[in-house]
Specification:
Low-confidence stretches: 169-187
Structural class: alpha+beta
CATH topology of the largest domain: endopeptidase fold (from Nostoc punctiforme)
Distance between the termini: 29 Å
Number of helices: 5
Strand content: 25-35%
CATH architecture of the largest domain: Alpha-Beta Complex
Helix content: 10-25%
Largest sheet: 6 strands, antiparallel
Number of strands: 14
CATH class of the largest domain: Alpha Beta
Radius of gyration: 20 Å
Number of domains: 2
């Protein structure tokens, strides 16, 4: 997977949460997912009363399996410090942002000179068009929502820059294999399927609005077992291979140039 594809997967995963909000309680799923991370940053368990913009960004990192480069943290200020230590913090006025960059805001910025205040908010750049960019943010008006803002505009504190290029050169490229499940030769040791049923073969849509995790081994829920999160409504292909664990069928599927296992409970077969 290229760096551009990794960035797009981050954006797509974030978009799958669009509309989650405080009013109907769906935002709690984001906070609950964050609190599963071990060890919790600074041993702090986020509450439903806390601000959750950085929590949202962290959950996207967790779902995409990028926590080593897209740091998990619930504080915007601490997040900046983490990226500074990794030499991945950018606040130059002439910086040209890209999708997948993390944009930090300072609402006290008066628009005069450099903005050097404390950060108040964070979002993920979705796209850049000319001198405007679209950003997706958690806790924007108590919901996951978009914001359109001018590049190098007022309130921009700077950018945290996950090192997506390093993942394109290492972990992800090791996943590239043949398009068919029968030629399963991934260097990351995707497990062999134990069963085959031709009636299960076909194209499926992801119906989990939070996206569906693609895993090396069926039924094993851990960060080490995660390949990436496939966004809502994306298509995967099953060739009939699967493994049953605790009465759940885990289909061996292909997604773009990747292969792995997904739970069949969150798939909808497309009609031929």
């Amino acid at each position: 997977m290229t760096e551009n594809e990794i960035r797009q997967n981050v954006v797509n995963t974030a978009i799958s949460y669009l509309g989650y909000n405080k009013q109907d309680g769906t935002y709690k799923k984001i906070i609950d997912r964050y609190n599963t991370y071990q060890p919790l940053p600074r041993s702090y368990k986020v509450t439903y009363k806390d601000y959750w913009c950085a929590v949202f960004v962290s959950v996207i990192s967790m779902l995409c399996g990028l926590t080593d480069i897209m740091f998990v943290e619930c504080s915007c200020n601490v997040m900046i410090e983490l990226y500074k230590k990794a030499d991945r913090w950018q606040e130059a006025d002439d910086y040209a942002p890209s999708k997948g960059d993390l944009l930090l805001y300072d609402w006290d910025d008066n628009g005069q000179g450099d903005c050097t205040g404390m950060p108040d908010h964070i979002g993920i750049v979705v796209e850049v068009s000319g001198n405007m960019m679209k950003v997706i943010e958690g806790n924007k008006g108590n919901a996951v929502a978009y914001r359109n803002i001018q590049v190098n505009g007022r309130y921009i504190r700077g950018y945290c820059l996950p090192d997506y290029g390093s993942k394109a050169q290492s972990t992800i490229t090791n996943q590239q294999i043949s398009k068919t499940a029968e030629s399963n030769k991934s260097e990351k040791k995707v497990a062999y399927a134990k069963e085959k049923e031709n009636t299960y073969a076909g194209k499926y849509l992801i119906i989990a609005k939070e996206g569906l995790n693609l895993r090396y081994k069926p039924g094993e829920i851990s960060q080490d077992n995660l390949i990436l999160t496939i966004p809502y409504q994306e298509q995967v292909i099953c060739y009939g291979y699967y493994t049953t664990i605790k009465n759940v069928k885990w289909f061996l599927v292909t997604y773009n140039d990747l292969i792995g296992y997904v739970s069949s409970e969150y798939l909808k077969k497309e009609q031929v």
